[in-house]
Design goal:
It is a single chain. The chain has 165 residues and is α/β, with parallel strands linked by helices. It has a single domain (2-163), classed as Ribonuclease H-like superfamily/Ribonuclease H (Nucleotidyltransferase, domain 5, 2-Layer Sandwich), CATH 3.30.420. Helices cover 45% and strands 20% of the residues. It has five helices and five strands. The chain has a five-stranded mixed beta sheet with strand order 3-2-1-4-5. The radius of gyration is 15 Å and the shape is globular.
Length: 165
């Protein structure tokens, strides 16, 4: 079992595994809200609850935790926010013997999922829909309007699927 995360203001997550024919199967996916103004201890507790939930969905032990790396951003606040949450994910993963957390570069993931290293959110949502039949849509550029959470879920699903490749 692999757990994939997309770290943002909403934390997208997904659990995948390989079936008997080595095809990636999506077990469960969702979003965990971690508001910027939330107390760090409360965020850490929320992540612990999320990992408890992930372990309940897992049909076998978690073999790896993967995160999408942060692309180059000009906003220092976005960069700092990513690393605060990333550190908390690593702490909770370590508490559960799922350390180290492995990072996939954002452009590597996009190229693997869509064929384009600079794919937008609409292409990433489409890739998740086509691979797994999920009903996730981007906020703009998609045939149906989605949400930030759906974009984060799509990325997390693709992170977890990429980890099996």
């Amino acid at each position: 079992m692999i757990v994939g995360f997309d770290i943002s203001t909403s934390l997208g997550w997904a659990i995948t595994r390989l079936d008997d024919e080595d095809r990636v199967v999506l077990i469960e996916h969702g979003v965990c809200e971690l508001p910027t103004k939330m107390n760090p201890i409360d965020k850490l507790d929320r992540l612990r609850v999320l990992f408890d939930t992930l372990e309940m969905h897992a049909v076998e032990c978690i073999a790896g935790v993967y995160v999408e790396g942060i692309p180059f951003v000009k906003q220092a606040q976005a960069h700092a926010s990513y690393w605060r949450v990333r550190t908390m994910v690593e702490v909770v993963a370590a508490e559960r013997d799922c350390y180290p957390v492995t990072e996939v570069n954002a452009s590597t993931l996009k190229k693997w999922a869509t064929g384009k290293g600079n794919a937008d959110k609409a292409l990433m949502c489409r890739a998740a829909r086509e691979r797994f039949g999920v009903r996730l849509h981007a906020r703009k550029g998609d045939e149906q309007k989605g949400s930030k959470g759906q974009e984060d879920e799509a990325d997390a699903i693709l992170v977890a699927a990429w980890a099996h490749s």
